[in-house]
Known about the structure:
- It holds the Pfam family Poly_export.
- It is found in: Cell outer membrane.
- Its main location: membrane.
- This is EPS I polysaccharide export outer membrane protein epsA.
- The protein is built from 7 helices and 11 strands.
- It is of the alpha+beta class.
- The protein has 3 domains: about 1-30 and about 240-270; about 60-150, 2-Layer Sandwich (wza like fold); about 155-235, Roll (Outer membrane lipoprotein wza fold like), CATH 3.10.560.
- It has a 6-stranded mixed sheet with strand order 2-8-7-11-9-10, with helices on one face. A 3-stranded antiparallel sheet has the order 3-1-6, covered by helices on one side. A two-stranded antiparallel sheet has the order 4-5.
- Strand 7 (about 155-160) and strand 8 (about 165-170) form a beta hairpin.
- The radius of gyration is 29 Å and the shape is rod-shaped.
- The N and C termini lie close together (about 10 Å).
- Mean pLDDT is about 80; it is low at about 20-25 and about 85-100.
Amino acid sequence: MRLFTRIVLNCLLGLLIGTAMAQRQPKRDAMTYFQPTDQDSTAALSVRRPAYAYRLQTGDILAIAVSSLNADADITFNPFSRFGGVLAGGTSGRETSNNLPIGYRVSETGTIHFPKLNQVPVAGRTLSELETLLRDTLQAFLREPYVSVRLLNFKISVLGEVQQPSVFTVQNEKITLTEAISLAGDLTVYGKRENVLVVRETPAKREFIRVDLTNRSLFDSPAYYLKPNDMIYVEAKNSKKVQASKLFPYVPVFVSGLTLIATVVLNLMR
């Protein structure tokens, strides 16, 4: 009987020590975003980075609106205005229409065909740079021209373990990975936050970029600022690992229950 008592007590003691060590062992939280690493420092995190600006590439579709003091002459430089406000409008948020945007398409040579100016090189320029170029060039035809350029084909896809997978149309010229995930309602509890895949189509190749949302290094990732037609895929966790992570918080309760049972048994044996 004493041998049995010693075995029970030793098992309980080992279980208690093991549980305490497991709880005290520092672990990286798999659910919390933007966690610091050992290499992070206050100085490094406070460095200012240059503002991001998307640069146009082949296949982009542009909305270009021109206005000036020559109202009658403006019509020549707004050939798409007859289609009813497509240039100035556009939608934001979830894509609900299959209509193709109407505008200037960037050719394989990186140019657009613009009234009076013929072929205008645009690939590699930012929207602001293109506005300046067109404004300066159109001064030969208009009095005090004003030019507004927007990107019409900026769409992103969010798939996998998110609350609301969908295709989203971006109204502004830039959107971050975290903003896109917010549009999709954030990841589910089954989503792998440490291994999110961004698939990017470029004129030269298809890129596959892995991003860890739980690490602050994601702010330095080339996928932090998304580009048109980027696809975000969130892989699902292994179901067994998910179940294990759910049961782990109840280990102390389980141990306490065993301790209580052992105490009762020992008292009855006296």
